[in-house]
């Protein structure tokens, strides 16, 4: 199928632009709006039609781009990445986009997701003589591309992706093309936007808003979009009947102002809160949420129960997401620095505290303690997701089974562990009800039913 530039209507995070005179400012703004998806490193690759140039580093987008000489990065095409490592550590060699040379020329790739057979493929490739420059799974794709027998890029991509298993929303670029691909199950999000004669691809629609682009549509699972001066072409290169969009994107990961499958994330979270109120009510004087990601669900639960919502917890906005910090020490320090209680709001009250998830239990444990120390009479915890009992191998670092509170304890033990007066979660079925779908969501971290064959993971 084909369209051209004029006729087209108007995790890690990935962001790509084609068609602007100077893409660097859009790449920077896009990455800033996707910062919540990865805080370990950031980078961009820009093409002026002749050469690809890369700028990347460890740290937040603002830190990495502090000394960015944008005048040296002029180009009409570029991709960017914010990383939160799922395979390989957070060091500089693992930062993305990965820039490489192969028989097809210079290319760069930015990957959101995680490949479950990367180690096996890497081992095979090393046996055949490949030399890897990083320890992340994404580099396997670059090697497979360079070894594909096909002489055109699209053919090489189809051959490379036919060999990988797992989650990938992928941006690839050469000096004159931007290619966007989503894995056949559509595990990670990827959207297409348009602004005048520019095309933009991004992990979330909130990144389109920031550069003034309009959402055209989502990239379909298994679809490859090619954007060049010839216009936009698309093709379904990887077919699967099954769909498995990550339910955690709705629950926690994405920004509330993003939309997936025609559903706004804030609205979905609010519905999850209403479903919690319906099946797992609690008696209390006030409802409060844990900033940031559970505020929408807390508002839904408050509405569902007819109990006033109060902001009892205040967040220091200069501390990032704690769950995606790479070490447990970092996560504990993060929670302590990040949240504080307004004692006068909770003193002598029965508080219903809503969070979106319990993974390791670091946050809930700390917050129940803070609320009780602040004078709450009772603290009832309601979680707008099912208990996380299995690790994710598909792009969210829910860590090993041993670290997951719910994998190793009963509801009663968890209630004791976080010192709550009561605790309840949604069931996987209630999660579907809250999202408003019958199927098509991955819920493996709650059920252990992985949508792809495991075998070799991280
Ligand atoms: O049980 P745990 O291991 O503590 O993980 C779960 C917590 O981590 C996340 O919050 P986080 O602080 O990362 O991000 P947020 O500020 O977006 O809510 C999530 O919203 C839970 O609060
Ligand atoms: N969170 C992600 O999507 C990470 C992408 C890739 N697996 C990496 O570790 O670099
Ligand atoms: S296992 Fe959980 S976190 Fe991972 S993709 Fe599936 S729903 Fe998302
Ligand atoms: Mg949170």
From TrEMBL:
Alphabetical GO biological process terms: 'de novo' IMP biosynthetic process; purine nucleobase biosynthetic process
Binding-site residues for [4Fe-4S] cluster, renumbered to this chain: 246, 392, 442, 445
User: Is the keyword 4Fe-4S assigned to this protein?
Assistant: yes
- The lineage's top-level taxon is Bacteria
InterPro entries xrefs:
GATase_2_dom (IPR017932), Ntn_hydrolases_N (IPR029055), PRTase-like (IPR029057), PRTase_dom (IPR000836), PurF (IPR005854), PurF_N (IPR035584)
Show the Gene3D superfamilies listed in the entry. 3.40.50.2020, Glutamine Phosphoribosylpyrophosphate, subunit 1, domain 1 (3.60.20.10)
Protein residues bound to Mg(2+)? 293, 355-356
Task: Provide the cofactor note recorded for this chain's UniProt entry.
Answer: Binds 1 Mg(2+) ion per subunit. Binds 1 [4Fe-4S] cluster per subunit.
One Pfam family this chain carries? Pribosyltran
Instruction: Give the active-site positions.
Output: 12
Annotated Glutamine amidotransferase type-2 domain residues: 12-230
The pathway this protein participates in, as annotated, is: Purine metabolism; IMP biosynthesis via de novo pathway; N(1)-(5-phospho-D-ribosyl)glycinamide from 5-phospho-alpha-D-ribose 1-diphosphate: step 1/2
Report which reactions are catalysed by this protein: 5-phospho-beta-D-ribosylamine + L-glutamate + diphosphate = 5-phospho-alpha-D-ribose 1-diphosphate + L-glutamine + H2O
The protein's required cofactor(s) are namely: Mg(2+); [4Fe-4S] cluster
One of the entry's Gene Ontology molecular-function terms is: 4 iron, 4 sulfur cluster binding
Reported EC number(s) for this entry are 2.4.2.14
Question: Which UniProt keywords are present, listed alphabetically?
Answer: 4Fe-4S, Glutamine amidotransferase, Glycosyltransferase, Iron, Iron-sulfur, Magnesium, Metal-binding, Purine biosynthesis, Transferase
NCBIfam families named among the record's database cross-references: purF
Tell me its family. Answer: In the C-terminal section; belongs to the purine/pyrimidine phosphoribosyltransferase family.
What is this protein's function per UniProt?
Answer: Catalyzes the formation of phosphoribosylamine from phosphoribosylpyrophosphate (PRPP) and glutamine.
Protein name from the UniProt record: Amidophosphoribosyltransferase
Species in which this protein is naturally found: Proteinivorax tanatarense
Question: What is the primary gene name for this protein?
Answer: purF
């Amino acid at each position: 199928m084909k369209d051209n530039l004029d006729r087209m209507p108007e995790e890690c995070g990935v962001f790509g632009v084609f068609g602007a005179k100077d893409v660097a400012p859009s790449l920077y703004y896009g990455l800033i709006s996707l910062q919540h998806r990865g805080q370990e490193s950031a980078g961009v690759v820009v093409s002026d039609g002749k050469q690809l140039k890369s700028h990347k580093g460890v740290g937040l987008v603002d830190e990495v781009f502090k000394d960015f000489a944008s005048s040296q990065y002029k180009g009409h095409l570029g991709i960017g990445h914010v990383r939160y490592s799922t395979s390989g550590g957070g060091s500089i060699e693992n930062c993305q986009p990965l820039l490489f040379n192969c028989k097809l020329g210079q290319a760069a790739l930015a990957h959101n997701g995680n490949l479950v057979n990367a180690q096996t493929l890497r081992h095979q490739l090393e046996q055949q003589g490949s030399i890897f420059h990083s320890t992340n799974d994404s580099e396997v794709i670059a090697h497979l591309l360079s070894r594909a027998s096909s002489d055109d890029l699209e053919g090489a991509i189809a051959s490379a992706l036919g060999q990988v298993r797992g989650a990938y929303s992928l941006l690839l670029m050469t000096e004159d093309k931007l290619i966007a691909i989503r894995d056949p199950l559509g595990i990670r999000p990827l959207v297409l936007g348009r602004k005048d004669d520019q095309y933009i691809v991004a992990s979330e629609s909130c990144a389109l808003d920031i550069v003034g682009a309009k959402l055209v549509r989502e990239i379909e699972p298994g679809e490859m979009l090619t954007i060049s001066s010839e216009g936009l072409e698309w093709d379904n290169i990887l077919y699967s009947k099954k769909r498995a969009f990550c339910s955690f994107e709705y629950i926690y990961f994405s920004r509330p102002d993003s939309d997936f499958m025609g559903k706004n994330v804030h609205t979905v979270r609010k519905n999850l809160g209403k479903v919690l109120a319906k099946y797992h009510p609690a008696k209390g004087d006030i409802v409060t949420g844990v900033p940031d990601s559970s505020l929408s669900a807390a508002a839904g639960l408050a509405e569902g129960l007819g109990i006033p919502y109060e902001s009892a917890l205040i967040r220091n906005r200069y501390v990032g997401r704690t769950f995606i910090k790479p070490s447990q020490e970092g996560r504990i320090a993060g929670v302590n620095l990040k949240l504080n209680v307004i004692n006068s709001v909770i003193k002598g009250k029965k508080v219903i505290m809503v969070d979106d998830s319990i993974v390791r239990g670091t946050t809930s444990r700390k917050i129940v303690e803070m609320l009780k120390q602040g004078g709450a009479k009772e603290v009832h915890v309601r979680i707008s997701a099912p208990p996380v009992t299995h690790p994710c191998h598909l792009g969210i670092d829910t860590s090993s089974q041993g670290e997951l509170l719910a994998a190793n304890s009963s509801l009663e033990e968890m209630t004791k562990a976080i010192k709550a007066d009561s605790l309840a979660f949604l069931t996987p079925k209630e999660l579907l009800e809250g999202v408003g779908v019958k199927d098509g969501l991955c819920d493996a971290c709650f059920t252990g039913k992985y949508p792809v064959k495991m075998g070799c993971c991280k």
